[in-house]
Every structure is written in structure tokens, then in C-alpha cells.
Amino acid sequence: MSKKQTGQAGALGIAGRLTQKFIASPLTPLLLLASFAVGMIALVSLPREEEPQISVPLVDIHVEAAGLKAEDAVKLITEPLEAIVKGIDQVEHVYSLTRDNQVMVTARFIVGVESETAILRVHDKLRANMDRIPVGIPEPLVVGRGINDVAIVTLTFSPKSGQDAMTANDLTRIVREVESEIIKIDNVGLTYMVGETGEALRIAPDPEKLALYGVTLQQLVGKVKGANSTSPAGSVRDGGEQIGLILGDTLSTPEQIGNLTLTSRDGRPVYVRDVADVSFVTDLNAVHVSTLHRVGDHGIERMPAVTLAVAKRAGANAVTVAEAILHKVESLEGNLIPDSMTVEVTRDYGKTADEKANELLFHLGLATVSIVALVLIAIGWREAIVVAVVIPMTILLTLFAAWLMGYTLNRVSLFALIFSIGILVDDAIVVIENIARHWGLKRKGQSRMGAAITAVAEVGNPTIVATLTVVVALLPMLFVSGLMGPYMSPIPANASAAMIFSFFVAVMVTPWLMIKVAGNAEMHHDEDAEAGGRLGKLYTAVARPLLKSKAVSLTFLIVVIVASFGSLAAIYTRDVTVKLLPFDNKSELNIVIDLPEGASVEATDAVAQQAARIALGLPEVVSAQTYSGTASPFNFNGLVRHYFLRQLPELGDVQINLEAKDERERSSHEIALELRELLAEMDVPPGTNIKTVEPPPGPPVIATL
Fold it and tell me: How far is 255 from 278, CA to CA, in rounded Å?
């Protein structure tokens, strides 16, 4: 395309040359359609999650130190392990916990290290330094936990009201069958049960009878252990068949154990049943898990419960995995799950992730519509049509880039788009307005296509500088260290990509659209184009008096500075709260209970029940699950804080389930504040510590509450 054809003159620059190449190119509409196509593919394919998936490798090293007091274990085991672990590459922090008979050392790696890599490094380092561990200490157990171990769905199984005959053991057997069905679903990761009760054969020796028959406790244990074993004994051939032989048999009933012969006394055999009571037990009372609901207007019903927690694999879409899990459970109801049992969904991160993504996409669309309406009012309807095409194209291209960079669709990545939409639309609006202005000038001998190229070239360099300025201002956020770095990284990555795409769309696609949509139309502001139109006149009317003299300009500048710094007083008076991230309005709260060391699980359960009943007194609370002697299914906060290790009788949790946020007036933070005040008035044993824990709005930290 020659200058004679277009009519433009002067240096075009990068922006002008791009416009010159694409304003009449047949590739431009193909580029437009391809952008929408890849963007829609990315929108559908991007995994939806509630929070950015941050790799926080935490590797726990468990050591059994039988017979060692905590003071001795610190010197003999804990300190050597800390020295070994601290020397591992990319280990950021080392934590340790030492009790009588056991030691745990935790290695926290730098954020971003792959969990499998971290586990292998710890394992190899320990194997190479086992000589520094005292002789007789068993080999340490290395356990790795990561973000993909956080359950996205938790299901609480309990008997229906009136089904008092169903025990925790009955629930456990059914939930195990349900778990075996759920793990068959694609992209299901770690699954585990909380509150399961095992079955056991209990042998309760009678000290007086042991003394009467002259049987020691060691003899009793040795006899039962020896009888409860099998071993292969080769094979025999008979009738053309080869039959395997096994010596011994495993014990499976109380009668088999009771009939074992221990010794003889006065010429008669002494059996196990003579010195001990052998029984089959289904409730070991190691932990207490229950669910509480309102019954009627004022009653609260407590039922035994077992919770099944299900996580997803890395990179899987939380929404689709959660939907598949719930659909599978629904298909099992009335079949594997009896009608006498109820299943409550106490966590569904797939649903909340989908709701947040849809809500943010709605606000993204609302912001786009608002900008199109503003352009419609300020410039014209033809220009508004161009903006209505350019903004979605830029957003979809940004989503495609996010997909290629490995980001997911979560509230932080979508916030980056909402944050940047006001900036990225500037490029297109500047180009559209300048093209419309040049067309309104009607220069002699210049076609509209040439005027468009000239208009883009005129604002091209400032547009490039403005785009790069925003990108340069955002990119340093990518280098923030710690958990906050990768948590906030979608903002600089997506916003920078959006700005770069917005520039190329503005200079390559926008002029072509202007030619197609308004190439032959009369400009509505032809007569006053040089003055900038109605808005230009309004700006002139306001700015001219302020710039009339130096005294007026200086006075205006001082007023602006004073008002700017004066607004900071609202922070001092606390009329404006300064926070890095706003409180999240989630539908769950957690009460963490610590009784004095040595308290029984029954005492812990009593406090947990009291706290749950207080919580159920709040109108927004739907149900509560109590966990005594064990921990509730951990979330991201619990992963970092290691709540899953709370397995002592004096420790307990209460999971509070709230109504959906659109069904209640108060936020979860406001509910938590009231709940803290109510729990502070509880009558609990001295030394008890009760904390109301809210899911943090950002990445959690290991610090005291």
C-alpha cells in the first residue's frame, strides 16, 4: 500500500507501520476469529480453583524414640536431624517437635520446589547420614505433604435421626466401601477417613488368675503372637495336582484365642480363657467424631459421624472432579449407602471455586459493558461497537496466555483481568478517538484509511511508552519471595500480558474494525473536532481559569497536595482499615481446642460439644462437626500449620458450616467475631485454649493466632 493510496505523510513508527500492514490485510479478520477461538478454548480448558495452587513442600521426618525422655531425645536425635536437614539444598526453614518417645522434624522448602523432589532430597540425605543417629533408633519415616493433599470435598456420614442403633463402626464399614468407589474416579487424589473405628479382638488379662496359674504376661503375649501366624511350607503333588502347604492359622474369633493352651496345672491344661477375658470390640474409644444439627425450634441432636476427605490430582479441574465425586455418591445412595444413613457435604471447593470464577467473570463482563456504554455516550455508537469487540478479544487472548503459562482460573488471576481492564482499554480508546478526530478534520487529499494510519502513528509512541510503563511497574511483583510471591504472581503475569495484547490489538485490529464499521459514516463531531468535542470544551472551561496565572496554579497545586496527604488521616483515625487482602467471606469456620496435657479424650469431647452448641445458637450456622482426639480434614491453612498432626487426646476441632454467603447478611468474619466473644465465656478446665480460626484471605503463615 503506497503513500499515494493512503495519503499519509511523515514517519509512521512501529504502531503506524503495524496499522499500515494490517488495516487492509485479509489476515486481520482471520486473526480476530483465531483470537476468539483460542480464547474460548482456554476459558473452557483452564482449571477452575478457589485459590492459586502454590507448591509449598513440607517434609516431615518422624522418629520413634522408645524409652527416651524429651530432654534426651533433643540432644541425641532432634539436634543431629536439624543439622542434617538444614544442609539440604533449597530448605528454607526447619521446625522440630520433641516429646517423650518421639521426635518430628519438618523441612520447609523454598516455595516452588516440586514435592517429589523435596521428599527425595530429604530421604537421600538421611540415608547418607544415618551414622549420626544413635544405634537402636529405627529408621526415620519421611512423609511429604503438599497443596494437592488438601481435600476439595469432604463428606460427613452419620445415621439419620432416630437410628440410634447404628454405631461408628457400622459407619466405618460403609464409608470404606464408598471410598473404594470414589478412588475409581478420574483425577481423584489422596483420600482418607476421619473418625473411623476399627474392629479388634481384646484380651484382658486377670492379674489374680495369672498369678494363680503361674503364667506371666510375657508368656500370654508370646503364645497369642505365636499362634496368630502362618508360614509357607512348600507344596505336595497329588493326583496330578500341585497343592501349596501353609503352616499355622490366623486367629479371627474370640473362641479361637480362648482355646489356646498356655500351660498345664495339676494335670489339666490352662487355656487363655482361664486367665483372660477375650472379647470382640468395635469401639476402641481412641477418638470421638460427631455431627450436630438443629432439631425443631430449640433442640440440638448429636449423632456419631465419619468424615471422608477427597483431594484431587495436580492440575485437575476442581469443579469437574468435585461434581464427579458428588454424582458418584448420589448414585450410591439407596444401594451401597443405606436409607438409614445421611450424607452431608461439609466442604465443596469445586462449587465455591465455580461460584467465585463465575462471579468474577460477571464483574468482568459488567466492567466491559460499562466501558462500552461510556464510549457510546462520549464518542459514538460505531466506536462503541469497536470497543465491544476489542475488549473481549484482549481478555480472551490473555486467558489463552494464562493457560500457556500454567495458571488456573481463580480469584487472583481473574482479579488481575478486572484490575487491568481499565488500563488495557486505554490503548483502544486512544486509537479510536484519534481516528475519529482525524476523520472529522477531513484533510484534503487524504482518504479515511490514510487518516486512520496517520492517527495511529500520531499516538503510537506515547501508547507504547504508556503500555511499557504499566508492564514495568507490575513485573517486580513476580519476584516477591515467600508464599505471597506465587500467590500474587497471576496479577503481574496476566495484567502484563493483557497490556501487551491490548497494544497490538489496538494498532492491528482496531483500525481495521473502524474502517469496516464507520469507514463511510459521517462523524458526529466533525464541526468541533479540532476543539476535542464536547468533553474537550468542558476540559478547556475548567482548566483555563486554573492556568490563568502562576498564583492560581500554585494555589490549586497546594490544595491538591494538602487534600492528598490529608486523606491519610482516615488511616490514623481507623475510618479506613489498611489490609493487604480483604477478609474472605467463606462458608466455613474452625474452632481449635487445646486442653491441658494429659486430659482425656472424653474431657476434650465435652468441651467440643459445648463449643458446637454455642455455635449452633447463631442463626447463620447450619451444622457443626466435632473432632476429639483427632483433627478435622485440613485446608490450605491447616496444611501449612500442620493441623493434621493434632492426634492427641487433649486436642480437638469443631468444624462450623455456615449458610451460603448469598443467603446470609453477615460475613463470615463478622460471625467469627461474635463467636469468639461467646466462646470466651465458656466454662472450661483451667489451661484450656480455644481459638476461632478463619480461612485466611491469602496464603497462610506459621505464626501464633
Answer: 8
